[in-house]
Amino acid sequence: MENNNLKEVEQRIKRYWYSDGIAELAVGGMFALLGLYFGIQGIFEDKSPISVILQVSLVFVMIAGFTGVGWLVKTIKARLTYPRTGYVEYRVNDNEAKQRRRLVITVGIIITAASIVLVDFFQKVDEMVLATGVLVGVIFISLRGKSSGVQRFYVTGSLAIVLGIVLSFSKLTQVYNLALFYGVLGIVTLIFGVLVLIKYLRENPMPEEDSNE
Amino acid sequence: MSDDLRGLTELDRLIHEPARLLIVTILSTVESADFLFLQRETDLTKGNLSAHLSKLENAGYVKIDKTFKGKLPLTVCKLTESGQEAFDGYRQQMQNFIDKTK
């Protein structure tokens, strides 16, 4: 019970959410689908009816994706994780939510300001994939890695930033850059998720039914 | 002896016990947690955890809901408002003590 200070306990409990890899499988799956979405969009000509439908439907795809991911993670955890290692309902921390919003807004402002000041530079690069890479990277590193202490999020976050920077200099069109960005990041996140899930299932077999509580 | 140090004798002994302190600490960071999770996090036996939770429940520090999920029993524990206040007070007293004895 030594070293059980409050911050460590908080971090350990936050880490528990990611201990089975299910959240990463869901997020990785969503990224991979986004990659596929942009890939399909790139196949069709810019003003073809299918391309227009795809562009308009992006908002709905994103909303459905985020809602679906939340539901999917909770459902799978209820069947796979909670019977093995227990159930936790996390507290919504208003301060953390505010910090998250502030961070995302700050990064957005910095990117927008940089694109205005460094006009020449931003004409040579794909600013959309660069901004996406930095934003996704910051979310992984700062909001996920730092708050939970899960080391692999630093790897995923760094990969997102590097991918964003590298692809922003590529000669591909924006949709293909985004397709590659989300595709690669999605596959890497899925691989992490599968490895973590296998390790979790090996270490935590389903306990025998017992009502002695 | 200063009042801060003397205050140590007035520590909430129900929370001061190491196993219960760990249970309360865990519950103070979440909305609620089930028996299995608490057992794994505290490394206590079922009997021990049950006994400590009963004491905390009797003191009004923890609310315990026993339900079933399918055929499996589900015991969900939640720190009450008075439990949170008692824990905050305990931490403050300990912090004062640590500050005075540095």
Describe the fold and architecture:
The complex is a heterodimer of chains A (213) and B (102). Chain A has 213 residues and is mainly α. Chain A contains 9 helices and 1 strand. Chain A is 80% helix and 1% strand. In chain A, helix 2 packs antiparallel against helix 3 and helix 8 packs antiparallel against helix 9 (174-203). The longest helix of chain A is centred in the N-terminal third of the chain and has 32 residues, at 49-80. The two termini of chain A are 22 Å apart. Chain B has a single domain (3-100), classed as Arc Repressor Mutant, subunit A, CATH 1.10.10. Chain B contains 6 helices and 3 strands. Chain B has helices at 3-6, 13-16, 18-29, 35-42, 46-58, 81-100; strands at residues 30-34, 62-69, 72-79. In chain B, 28% of the residues are buried.
Spell out the blueprint of helices and strands.
The complex is a heterodimer of chains A (213) and B (102).
Chain A (H helix, E strand, L loop, with lengths): L5 H13 L3 H22 L5 H32 L1 H4 L2 E3 L3 H24 L1 H6 L2 H22 L3 H17 L5 H30 L10
Helix pairs in contact in A: 2-3, 2-9, 5-7, 7-8, 8-9
Chain B lengths: L2 H4 L6 H4 L1 H12 E5 H8 L3 H13 L3 E8 L2 E8 L1 H20 L2
Antiparallel strand pairs in B: 1-3, 2-3
